[in-house]
Write a structure and sequence with these properties.
The protein has 9 helices and 12 strands. The protein has 282 residues and is α/β, with parallel strands linked by helices. The chain has one domain: Divalent-metal-dependent TIM barrel enzymes (TIM Barrel).
């Protein structure tokens, strides 16, 4: 067992009372950065004060760094300003694009997986790092359609970015589960291929079935396959991991979310113990 592993929740205003009453069971918090770009100074100070007392990470959703289009300068400046004010322990974004042809598309879309998008993504990550002074961890995303224009596998594309990007990979296991179902690949083969040593943070969440596909909506409990993948990763990633449970609505009682965190702890501990036993047999 790695005693430095941590287990936390995504900060949501609707969960604030439950979170603050149970901080002794929550090792870290992840705050959606964009919610504070134009927030009143009092709201930003509250997050800053929280970060001074408890580990806080900022998670951006609208920069669109996985794009051949440069990120919006205003949003990058807002991100830099927020990092300066809050002083989080880290920040992250998604391997997605959010605008094209001057139009905001309103959601995070998977980019075409090809050499051009890899080069452009790395350039955008470098620009974000220069502006903020801190390299972001980049999160793999879910999709209900296989991105047109792709000639590289998801595993190869993620590996190329994760290996080269200074902030490494934020590994979302529900997104891996979703894509493996939607596009018919073996999630464990992907996890065995990507550079897990570049992962510090893991997201877990739940979604819903829409016909024969899964929609990653963060409105449902974490499904069994995600916990199984979490144990699998814990066997192979020897560095300390921070596991964040995301929930964006249809909030259950805080006790239910804490129970999901406990199950995540169990999955990681089982993986750590399996790794120890495997090492002892060598």
């Amino acid at each position: 067992m790695n005693t430095q592993d941590r287990f936390g929740l995504g900060w949501r205003d609707d969960l604030a009372a439950g979170i603050l009453s149970n901080l002794h069971r929550i090792d870290a918090l992840e705050v959606i950065a964009d919610d504070y770009f134009d927030a009143p100074s009092k709201k930003v100070r509250a997050i800053r004060d929280l970060a001074q007392q408890h580990p806080v990470m900022l998670h951006a959703v609208s920069l669109g760094l996985a794009s051949t289009i440069a990120p919006d300068r205003k949003r990058l400046a807002q991100m830099a300003k927020l990092i300066d004010k809050v002083n989080p322990e880290s920040w992250s974004e998604h391997l997605a694009f959010v605008r094209a042809g001057g139009i905001e598309i309103g959601h995070m879309a998977s980019p075409p997986r090809n050499a051009t998008s890899i080069d452009a993504t790395l350039a955008n990550i470098a620009a974000a790092t220069k502006t903020t002074g801190v390299a972001p961890a980049m999160e793999n995303v879910a999709s209900v359609i296989d991105p047109p224009g792709s000639n590289i596998s998801e595993a190869a594309w993620l590996s190329s970015v994760a290996t080269t990007s200074p902030g490494g990979l934020l590994l979302d296991l529900h997104n891996i589960h979703t894509n493996s179902v939607n596009f018919g690949y073996d999630p464990y083969a992907l996890l065995s291929t990507i550079p897990l040593h570049r992962v510090k943070t893991i997201h877990i969440a739940g979604g819903k079935w829409i016909g024969k596909r899964i929609l990653d909506d963060h409105l449902h409990p974490v499904p069994d396959p995600v916990y199984a993948m979490l144990a699998f990763v814990a066997v192979r990633a020897t560095q300390p991991l921070t596991v964040i449970l995301e929930r964006d609505g249809a909030y259950p009682p805080i006790a239910d979310l804490l129970a999901e965190l406990d199950r995540a702890r169990l999955a990681v501990n089982q993986g750590r113990e399996a790794a120890t036993h495997e090492y002892a047999r060598v």
